[in-house]
Specification:
The complex is a heterodimer of chains A (388) and B (341).
Chain A (H helix, E strand, L loop, with lengths): L1 H18 L2 H21 L6 E6 L21 E7 L2 H9 L5 E4 L4 H6 L4 E7 L4 H32 L9 H5 L2 E7 L7 H31 L2 H7 L4 H30 L8 H25 L3 H18 L11 H7 L3 H14 L7 H26 L3
Helix pairs in contact in A: 2-11, 7-9, 7-10, 7-11, 7-13, 9-10, 10-13, 10-14, 13-14
Chain B lengths: L6 H7 L6 E10 L2 E11 L4 E5 L6 H9 L6 E6 L9 H4 L2 E4 L11 H11 L4 H14 L15 H13 L5 E5 L7 H16 L3 E6 L10 E6 L2 E6 L1 H9 L2 E7 L6 H4 L4 E8 L2 E6 L2 H14 L4 E6 L4 H14 L7 H9 L1
Parallel strand pairs in B: 3-7, 3-8, 5-6, 6-7
Antiparallel strand pairs in B: 1-2, 1-4, 8-9, 10-12, 10-13, 11-12
Classes of the chains: A alpha/beta (388), B alpha/beta (341).
């Protein structure tokens, strides 16, 4: 009975402690609920693969994309046709198309002269999952173009009387052949593609946690009362913290990069300097985010909860677990404000392609680092000036 | 206006303006009054004790000097400047030791001191020297490589003191440096504070040990947010009792009225038959006259001696006087209080 009394005493105490910290409770319960709700409302599923067809002007093939429709709504969308392969490749590079299927300039003549026609299928992705989806759709797409080519040649042959040449049976059996090519310089394995994303996530979490806990520890230990009297300014304090955390996080990050490239065989095609620039910007932005979180919260538990929520949000909306294209446009925009989102995309480009396909992300990450540092500076200055 | 009647005198004693002062300061926290209309000045080079029980308003008072709090009413000056807008150069001249342990438990003793020395802009060579000197001073040199978290409570207080002293501040503000430490250590802390004073530093220290008043040059007695008295410790007895107290014990019964007529005697209290308290301007001058008066009255004297109430008694008497209000005519109420106790 006494044991039960003691146990219930603990139960009562724990419940009261939790209930009397409504802000902590709100963060604890509402945070994950909000993230799940946003996830549920914003998830729109795998978008259709956008195909662009190359139909040369003199090919005689239909130039209306709808003529090639495979009737695979939700899976494949033919977004149009282009007269040249070069213009279609531009669309690939600018991410307005996912796959290009190109009929050759002189398909009919080639077939007439007894040559098999090659239909070029190109895409440009380092994402193994997307690569698998696209290559699966390449075959029916090529077949659709093939069908139009064959229909064209049959129509032309019927119109010409006295055709006496016997066609090559192999050519009749397979008049066209699809050659599929991924334009990306590497075809990384899942571990390489997601390894870079996980690296970005770890670095962000590390920087954020160090920044958040440091400021909070100063406040908890009553150091702020001393710092207000000491001849030290907010800029000096912040500079000191930034340098320390950049060095610490930088050292751990370097070790992770070595582990990734050496032990996990993740290729690093870009120069070390551009990878270092990316990671430095990510660390600065993450430490800044941590410092801002710690300066807007009052207690250590609050800041830990917020750091965990940031981690959760980064996993869901940073492009690690689910590609951002599967979310609604507003969330896609919102997710760009997470350092990990920019760093993941840039990292995958730098490691697996050798160059950034979206260089503006560097500017976005730098803007985040600068903006968060300025906000942290203002908040710290306000905290040091705050008097009861 | 509280009883800061000594302020002009103390201020005149120093040539320089006071190191810190507060004029008619009131401080409220969410409608609760922590300090009420307090005025006192900290003379340069003095060891000033802000003394009172827990919750009296001592920490509030010194937090106003450091700028960690702003007054609701009144003005505060520290080293000639408003604490909220202390210049960097001025802040370099202040050392603060907060009430709670505020150092970094993960750092060693020497690293903590070195960190504070760095905050005050000391360069490496001087920092090393001062860290060593300061740690030797507070008897922590042997524990210099021990993490602060592993130090005993007393050692942590000394480490905190070392951090406040390392840059040799002109004005040293210490909040309860002797709280929770053993009597021997308390004594050594006071010795250090006295040494600081002797070196020309100004020291403001809060303590709830009223007996510590005897170490101070000036004492501000605070209770319930009110300044009960401010002045040198010796004068506090006068202030509390209205003068020196001479205890007279005689054989037999005598009304003692002759004693009341003696020059320099302010009041006479009969405690029990045969025992009097004579409150006089100067106990040394009045005692021979008391002896003579008793003898002239043909009464046999058992004893006559100056009674020096402890600071605890003085403090209790002043609190009692404050509670009863000024209408209780200054000295009479405390004396009566002392007699009862």
């Amino acid at each position: 009975m006494r044991g039960l009394t003691r146990a219930f005493a603990v139960v009562g105490k724990e419940m009261l402690v939790v209930l009397r910290r409504p802000s902590a409770l709100a963060t604890l319960v509402l945070g994950p609920v909000v993230i799940l709700a946003v996830f549920g409302l914003s998830y729109i599923g795998q978008p259709p693969v956008r195909a662009l067809l190359v139909v040369p002007a003199n090919s005689g093939l239909p130039t209306d994309g709808r003529a090639y429709d495979l009737n695979q709504q939700g899976v494949l969308q033919i977004v149009g046709t282009r007269p040249t392969l070069a213009s279609a490749r531009q669309a690939l590079a600018s991410h307005t198309a996912d796959i290009v299927v190109a009929a050759p300039d002189n398909a009919v003549q080639q077939l007439r002269s007894g040559k098999q026609v090659v239909i070029q299928v190109e895409y440009d992705t380092v994402n193994p999952y997307q690569s698998a989806v696209i290559s699966r759709l390449a075959e029916p797409l090529a077949a659709s173009v093939n069908e139009k080519i064959v229909a064209q040649i049959v129509a032309q042959t019927n119109g010409q009387s006295g055709a006496s040449r016997t066609p090559d049976p192999n050519l009749v059996a397979a008049p066209t052949r699809a050659e599929t090519r991924d334009l990306a310089p590497t075809e990384p394995k899942l571990i390489a593609f997601y390894g870079v994303a996980v690296l970005a996530l770890i670095v962000q979490h590390l920087g954020l946690t160090l920044g958040a806990l440091s400021m909070n520890a100063d406040r908890r230990q009553g150091m702020l009362a001393l710092l207000r009297v000491a001849p030290v300014g907010a800029l000096e304090l912040l500079t000191g913290k930034y340098v320390a955390f950049v060095v610490l996080t930088g050292a751990i990050t370097s070790a992770l990069v070595v582990l990734m490239t050496q032990a996990m065989q993740v290729p690093m095609l870009a120069s070390i300097s551009s990878v270092m620039s990316l990671l430095l910007l990510l660390i600065l932005a993450s430490v800044g985010l941590g410092l801002v979180l710690s300066l807007v919260t009052r207690s250590e538990s609050q800041v830990i909860q917020l750091a965990l929520l940031a981690l959760l949000a980064s996993v869901f909306f940073g492009g690690l677990a689910i590609d951002l294209s599967q979310f609604s446009p507003p969330l896609q925009v919102a997710s760009q404000f997470l350092p990990v989102t920019e760093a993941t995309r840039l990292g995958q480009d730098l490691f697996l392609r050798g160059a950034a396909t979206e260089p503006w992300r560097f500017a976005a990450l730098a803007a985040m680092a600068i903006g968060l540092t300025l906000v942290a500076l203002l908040l710290l200055r306000r905290e040091l000036m705050h008097r009861q | 206006m509280t009883r800061a009647e000594h302020l002009p005198v103390e201020t005149r004693k120093a040539d320089a303006p006071p190191a810190a002062r507060m004029d008619r300061v009131t401080k409220d926290f969410n409608g609760v009054r922590a300090l009420a209309d307090v005025t006192f000045a900290v003379r340069r080079g003095a060891l000033v004790g802000v003394i009172g029980p827990s919750g009296a308003g001592k920490t509030t008072a010194i937090s106003l000097f450091t700028g960690n709090l702003v007054p609701t009413k009144g003005t505060v000056q520290t080293l000639g400047e408003e604490p909220l807008r202390l210049r960097r150069r001025t802040r370099e001249r202040i050392g603060l030791m907060p009430q709670q342990f505020t150092l970094y438990p993960e750092l060693t003793t020497a690293e903590n001191v070195d960190f504070f020395a760095s905050l005050f802009g000391m360069l490496a060579g001087r920092r090393r020297r001062r860290t060593r000197e300061t740690l030797q001073l507070v008897d922590l040199w042997e524990a210099r490589d021990r993490r602060a978290a592993k130090l005993s409570g007393g050692m942590q207080r000394r480490l905190q003191l070392a951090c406040a002293l390392v840059h040799q501040p002109e004005l040293l503000i210490l909040d309860e440096p002797t709280a929770g430490i053993d009597p021997l250590l308390r004594r050594s802390v006071w010795q250090e504070l006295i040494r600081q004073r002797e070196q020309g530093h100004t020291v403001v220290v809060t303590t709830q040990y009223v007996v510590d008043a005897e170490h101070c040059d000036l004492v501000a007695l605070i209770a319930n947010g009110r300044l009960l008295a401010f002045g040198p410790p010796g004068e506090l007895r006068h202030m509390a009792l209205g003068g020196d107290l001479v205890q007279v014990e005689i054989e037999g019964s005598w009304d003692g009225l002759d004693l009341e007529k003696l020059p320099g005697v302010r009041q006479l209290h009969r405690i029990v038959p045969g025992r009097f308290w004579v409150i006089a301007d100067n106990a040394g001058q009045v005692t021979p006259e008391v002896v003579a008066a008793v003898s002239a009255a043909g009464v046999e004297m058992i004893s006559v001696r100056e009674y020096r109430p402890s600071f605890d008694e003085i403090f209790a008497a002043l609190v009692h006087r404050d509670r009863d209000g000024d209408a209780a005519s200054g000295a009479v109420a405390p004396a009566a209080f002392l007699m009862r106790s």
